[in-house]
Amino acid sequence: MTARRPLIATDRAAIMLQLVPYLLGKGEVSIVEAAEEFDVSPAQMREMVEKLTVIGLPGDGGYWQMPNELFDIDWDLLAEQDRIVITNSVGLERSPKLTAREAAALLAGLQLARTIPGVGDSEIFAGLLAKLARGASAAPADVIVASGPVDEARSVVAAAVRDGLAVSFTYKATDAAPTTRTVDPVKIQIASGQWYLQGWCHLRRAMRTFHLERVSDIRLTDIPISHGGEPVPGWFEDGTDDVVVRVRFPESVAPLLGDYLDRAEVETTDSVSIATMRVADEVSLRRLAARRGGDVEILEPAGARRAAAEWAAAGLAQYR
Amino acid sequence: MPPKSAARNPPEERLVNLVVALMATEQGLTKDAILSSVSGYREQTEAGAKKDALEKMFERDKENLRGLGVPIETIGDRLDPEDLREARYRVPTAEYELPDDIEFSPAELALLNLAGGVWSESSMSSEARSGLRKIRALGIEVEDPIIGYSPRISVRERAFPELQQAIEQSRVVTFPYLKPGDEAARARRIQPLALVEYEARWHVYGIDLDAHAERTFLLSRITGDVTPTRATFDPALREGAGERARAGLDELAERQHALVEVNPGSEAALRLKRRARPAPQGILVPYVDVHELADELASYGPEVRVVSPGALRDQVVARLRATVATHGGAA
């Protein structure tokens, strides 16, 4: 679950507007379940439900509202079993329209989901796009996510996930010789337009992550998966990152370093940052250093620094 | 019924009471009626609060609710629409609620659940979750959740939310933009129309008001704040803008090719050949931005040699030379 930020009054109002249709739809629900649905603590949820009972239609001619003009809940059930039931409702029964931003967030996600072979068909996507457009209170900003075409590797992996079968392929990791792998697919991560297969590698007898761009000669086997229940490793955490490197770069370059910094400790003074991170081997960073053309300086270890200089010099020698 | 404490009620109670009251009225409520009858205002009116302070509070509440997507309609004097003294306010149910005839099937909800989970660590993630909650509250249950996939979209650029808001409001913005090779960032003034992730980079597409032409900017090259101006533009310009932007980038990649030689079996060969076409002397790699391609080609070091265009070759050479210099080698 995401870290909870403090709620301001408008956040709480937004939640209360959504809470009524949710509670009516559920009929009866526990404080804990409702709190989870709304990403708030159980105590916050209880407070909002209690507050709901002072919400109602305006008093007629300045008189106080009658009980049937206010929302009400089953107080005994709340006190004794921590469960919520609305016993009187005075409006707000149907969900509010989506805001432009909410619709945009879902529409962009659908574009990405659409690139997965076998997930939905174009009819269902077209229907959803139309419903979200009609269900939004204002026109969402166009947020477009362009993805590469579905190639053979993606189709085969999608079929393997669907049918619960292992795949076999040739894998070429950066700066390593190709290997032949048989893998029980567990999860497919899709990020920055790239597909990553996470699964149980029969060769290494462990969970591994494979970048599909590095996969060739892929085929579906008839071996049912046997390690589908293994925990999925985190992003690229294969337990092989054991070289500690330090790199220096202008603070403004940080957004260009992307994933590298997700795993780094960064200290910044006077707009210059120094990041300390673990990588798989000392030469792997030479590609990053050359890509950023002098903006990223490898400070240590000395071997990594030397490797970067040699790598760039060898590249340069071709133009002499 | 005994009056409850006249102390100020929490503002969220007042906001929600206002929505309930404005939805329950067909002909609308005047400001006076709201201040004297809607709980939250009524107590303060009765406690003798100043009327102009309460009116200001009402204006703020209206703005906050509109920010949440609540459509508050103002019905002015028919003869003099500028005269708001007798204006009535209401929330039309049809515009507030999800339309009655919109229903989602379990299969559609399964897809939406997948789509709603793509945003990693950004404000878009809570927007997606909130949108999903509204849909789930219609009472649909997912029968077959889509498992085995974890699609992600990341947005690291600070400019993204600022540009998105400007697009929603059809508002002209300015921002400092650093073109690679330029010494300093230059201020740009654009009508932003769409945000596009293309080749894993976020772009904003819009009309550059100084160049009088459509332009696409990389968010990573926006070096400072995106500043909204008071000027707005016709929202009709936004229609189909995202698709136009994508088509423009596709067309650019179709037109621009780099001729490069790659070492067989290398990382460069593996990554580039997937998107390249064979040529008599090497391979032809399509690209949209010469600087971005130069970054990538420089990372391959000795695995790739640029034949043409000359501008690309110069840029790759410059990066390699700077890398050698920074790391203490002789260039």
Question: What characteristics describe this protein?
Answer:
heterodimer; A: 320 residues; alpha+beta; Arc Repressor Mutant, subunit A; SH3 type barrels; 4 domains; five-stranded antiparallel sheet; four-stranded antiparallel sheet; 11 helices; 14 strands; elongated; B: 331 residues; 13 strands; disordered N terminus
Number of helices of chain B: 12
Question: How many DSSP-defined strands of chain A?
Answer: 14
Nearest-angstrom radius of gyration of chain B? 28 Å
Net shape of chain A: elongated
> Strands across the major sheet of chain B, in which order?
8-7-6-5-9
Order of helices and strands of chain A: HEHHEHEEHHEHEEEEEEHHEEHEH
Structural category of chain A is alpha+beta
Q: Which of globular, elongated, flat, extended, rod-shaped describes the shape of chain B? A: elongated
Query: What is the CATH class designation of the largest domain in chain A?
Result: Mainly Alpha
Count of individual beta strands of chain B = 13
Strand order of the largest sheet of chain A: 9-8-7-6-10
The overall average pLDDT of chain A, rounded, is: 86
What is the multimeric organization of the chains shown?
Answer: heterodimer
Give the terminus-to-terminus CA distance of chain A.
Answer: 55 Å
CATH class of the largest domain in chain B: Mainly Alpha
How many domains of chain A? The number is 4
Sketch the major β-sheet of chain B: 5 strands, antiparallel
Percent in strands of chain B: 15-25%
Number of helices of chain A: 11
Mean pLDDT reading of chain B: 89
Question: How would you describe what is shown here?
Answer:
The complex is a heterodimer of chains A (320) and B (331). With 320 residues, chain A is α+β, with helices and mostly antiparallel strands. Chain A has four domains: 9-88, Arc Repressor Mutant, subunit A (Orthogonal Bundle); 100-134; 152-224, SH3 type barrels (Roll); 243-317, Alpha-Beta Plaits (2-Layer Sandwich). Chain A is 35% helix and 26% strand. In chain A, a hairpin with a 7-residue loop joins strand 6 (165-171) and strand 7. Chain A is elongated, with a radius of gyration of 27 Å. With 331 residues, chain B is α+β, with helices and mostly antiparallel strands. Chain B has four domains: 11-96, Arc Repressor Mutant, subunit A (Orthogonal Bundle); 100-154, no CATH class; 169-252, no CATH class; 256-326, no CATH class. Chain B has twelve helices and 13 strands. In chain B, the strands form three sheets. In chain B, strands 8-7-6-5-9 form a five-stranded antiparallel β-sheet. In chain B, strands 11-12-10-13 form a four-stranded antiparallel β-sheet. In chain B, strands 1-3-2 form a three-stranded antiparallel β-sheet. Chain B is elongated and about 85 Å long. The N and C termini of chain B lie far apart (88 Å). Chains A and B meet through helix 1, helix 5, helix 6, strand 5 and strand 7 of A and helix 1, helix 2, helix 4, helix 6 and helix 7 of B. Strand 7 of chain A pairs parallel with strand 4 (149-152) of chain B, so a sheet runs across the interface.
